[in-house]
Amino acid sequence: MASAAQHVERALAGFLAWTGDPRIEARRAVEASPGSAMAHALQAYLHLCSRDPAGIPAAREALARAQRLPLDAAARLHLAAIAASLAGDWMRARELLGCVLAQDPRDLLALAVAHTMDYYLGDSQALRGRVAVALPAWSRADPHYHGILAMLAFGLEEDGEYARAEDAALEALALEPRNLRAHHARTHVLEMQGRDAEGIRWMTARSAHWTGEGASSAHLWWHLALYHLDLGDASHALELYDRHIAGESLSELIDASALLWRMELRGIETGPRWHLLAGRWAPRAEEAFCAFNDLHAMAAFVGACRRDLQRRLLRAQRRRLALGGTNEGMLRSVGQPACEALAAYGDGNYRRAADLLRRLPAVAHRLGGSHAQRGLLGLTLRASAKRANRANRDSPHFQMGTVPI
Questions:
Q1: In whole angstroms, what is the distance from residue 278 CA to residue 281 CA?
Q2: DSSP labels for 114-145?
Q3: Three-state secondary structure call for residue 58
Q4: pLDDT tens by residue, 287-315
Q5: How far apart are the first and last CA of the chain?
Q6: Considering the entire predicted model, what is its pTM?
Q7: pLDDT per position as a tens digit, 32-62
Q8: For residues 289 and 68, what is the distance between their CA atoms, to the nearest angstrom?
Q9: CA 76, 78, 81, 85 torsion-angle sign
Q10: Which terminus of the chain has fewer Cβ atoms in its 10 Å neighbourhood, N or C?
Q11: How far apart are CA 338 and CA 74, in angstroms?
């Protein structure tokens, strides 16, 4: 029978490599050692890092259990970070995790969770810098070194250092070919550099490593579908959507919306997929938990012409603005106007959609996610401006040069 420490190691390994279900191993660690505060903390963090409000009750219960146990200084900082996250203050949670890492750069849990929060907050400099600062405390002899390199690779890519990112990702894969984070980081590099055909060849040759890994697998299939779409092969992209992307988890719902919306902007017929996807998003219409989630829910509701669900989502966002917390700032600055822009686009009010989206570039990073994911906003802006311009040209009162693109 495995010990609590072994279950913790397995959970961390899965979290770093995006393989398996680390939450199962975290639960087993708690069962094996209920007196370990850090086992409870690990369980709480893994629920929080899902970006799914369904995990909040379990995270809160894990925190309560841990708070009743003897704590050392590091554990107290970890529990304070969890409490801050549960209160909606992700910025404070990151600060506390930074304190943990300042004292111990080999605290792998603190590093991985802080890196995840950097991603959710769209902080590309922290994505790279936090891991780079910790890296000298690690070596290739450490069993988790490939995971550190994979995080560094993604941070470098998001900060625009593509050559270094690619080198780090390939080094991680040389140590552990099944590290899906490393696959993901190189996939982003290839996409951002427009190396679509190379990306298809590379990912197809390695798909056995990540097929069947749940939401992580679906996200990599999503990237492969984007390559095909960018090369004009929409039918192949839709085949991948049907076989690998259209699932039920929150991550799969996000990827499904992101792919279908890009097709919508290109005028590609997607059949009944929007209506099916909107039905899966419908129970989440009033969560308003994360601005990034809201944007993709709105895309599904607009794609399916579900104005009732669009209204419910926008009303929920307005209620959420009164609660404060990190998401309030994200929602006010970019989440709500972006959702309103998508709704305007669906109504054919392309000028309003473009006007709303033009105000966002300076703050778009606050939506969270990657540059590739946030690219949905820029694509929608260009499509809205083009359609608004065409509508004005078709107007009998149109004068050349009056509508900027």
A1: 5
A2: HHHHHHHTT-HHHHHHHHHHHGGG--TTSTTH
A3: helix
A4: 999 999 999 999 999 999 999 999 999 99
A5: 65
A6: 0.93
A7: 999 999 999 999 999 999 889 999 999 999 9
A8: 28
A9: negative
A10: N
A11: 39
